[in-house]
């Protein structure tokens, strides 16, 4: 969880109160619900980047996809997840 703390703080930084503090389990559940809304390829790339710590070039090689395509899908996934987490906070 600690490795995602900086990300979570950035997403949930508006007006933090005791009522808005989430457990690690709740945050992961929210993240997974957000991921479920993404297209399969975006979800796969996002998971490799966040959970496995892979760089775009590594993901591109592993999935045998164009670097720019992976970069674009990762950007789309990040933006979508940020929006989802803000709306569901």
Structural description of this entry:
This protein is an all-alpha fold and 89 residues long. It contains five helices and no strands. The model has no long low-confidence stretch (mean pLDDT 83).
Secondary-structure element pattern, one letter each: HHHHH
**Record field, number of beta strands:** 0
Structural class assignment: mainly alpha
The CA-CA distance between the termini, in Å, is: 18 Å
**In this structure, how is the largest beta sheet organized?**
none
Rg, Cα atoms, Å: 14 Å
Oligomer: single chain
Into which percentage range does the β-strand content fall? under 5%
pLDDT below 50 for ≥5 consecutive residues: which ranges? none
Count of discrete alpha- or pi-helical segments spanning 4 or more residues: 5
Bulk shape: elongated
Mean pLDDT: 83
Brief account:
With 89 residues, the chain is mainly α. It is built from five helices and no strands. 69% of the residues lie in helices and 0% in strands.
Fold blueprint:
Blueprint: H1 5-11, H2 24-36, H3 40-50, H4 56-63, H5 67-88
Helix pairs in contact: 2-5, 3-5, 4-5
Name the descriptors.
5 helices; single chain; 89 residues; mainly alpha
